[in-house]
Each structure stands twice: as C-alpha cells, then as structure tokens.
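Final report, results section. Input specification for complex C-07:
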Amino acid sequence: DADVTQTPRNRITKTGKRIMLECSQTKGHDRMYWYRQDPGLGLQLIYYSFDVKDINKGEISDGYSVSRQAQAKFSLSLESAIPNQTALYFCATSDSRQGWDNEQFFGPGTRLTVL
Amino acid sequence: DQQVKQNSPSLSVQEGRISILNCDYTNSMFDYFLWYKKYPAEGPTFLISISSIKDKNEDGRFTVFLNKSAKHLSLHIVPSQPGDSAVYFCAASGYGGSQGNLIFGKGTKLSVKP
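Structure output:
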C-alpha cells in the first residue's frame, strides 16, 4: 500500500466550482505539504503544515485554502476554480525528527483540469 | 526570482555514458540539497542528498557534488541506463527561509538512449 495517497487522481471541473483534493499518509509524519506543478515550472509550494494546529502559506497560496483535519490528513480546496489552476497537484510529507535535513515523500499526484 | 536554477531543460545521453545534471542556487543560507527523480504519472521520489558540510556524496551509480563557493551542485549518473530516463529536480532547504521547506528547480528531463 502506498504511504502517501491522493484522491482523486484525475478531476475535470468547470470554472467557478468548488473543488477539494484529499491527501492521506500512513508514514506517521508530522509535516505535510501541497505543491503544484505546471509544465516547465517545477514544483511550487502552495501551503504547508508542521502539525495539526499549524497552517502556513507557501509561494502561491492565492485562490487556495487547506485544512489539516488530523496528523494523517491534509486537504486542499479551490473555493472557485479558474482555468489557470489547471495543473498537477502533489501532496508530500516529512518527519521533523529527521532534523535539519528535510527529505519529503510525495504522493502520486492529482491532475486537475478546470474548463 | 528563482533561488534554485536548473538551466538545462533537457539532456540526452547514450546508454553506458555519464549523465551530468547541473543546479545553481543563489541563497547562501541553504544548507541541504536534494535530488528527486520523477517519472510520468508518478510523484517525485527522493534520489540522493548532500549537506553543506560535505562536497561529495555517493550512492551506487549516483554521485552528487557540491561547490559552495560557486553555489553549484551537480548529479552524476555513471553508467547511465535507459531506466534513468526521467525528470530530475534539484531542491534546497535551509534555515534562511521557512524552516523545513524545500525550494525546487524547474527540472531537467534526462533521456538515456539505448
């Protein structure tokens, strides 16, 4: 079984719709992240959470919100989807007990298309 | 302004030869560097890392070199295999920015031809 799972894997929606992407992990990690990948732009950090009570904005948080319902779950919401949010979305986890090094473990990704 | 730069979007190498992927960074507060490998339709997977107290780290066919004075690191793959064909991301972290976060480059697509 995968350690970091994302649902759905693919989603097509229309402009203005509210969308939620879910991430679950069984690694027991305290830190979770949401990234977005656009062609040729690498991975950009949207939001991150270092524990259940901690939510922080990343580089490109506008138009997105998150919820850390439990240590193992971190969801990303698009309140009103727009076409330029069409992208590949990745969830990742890391363990603060690793210390200053920060290897992150990624889920398989969600491909979101906003028409 | 990009803090981590991978200036070569793509690289093509013959099987058995060496692949060298380059990465430059601008933030001197970065103290840990990682390489991730990504296949289509999958999430990135960790490949190898290096801390700023070292200048080389080796793991099998993969070696990462760090030149702090030049703010440059490189990933060497020897010998290259067709299964190495993927997108490679360089990433950096440090305490200068948000602690524990990674800053990624745009990636280099490596193609290893049989």
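The longest strand of chain B covers residues 30-38. The CA atoms of residues 51 and 80 of chain B lie 24 Å apart. This concludes the modelling results for the funded period.
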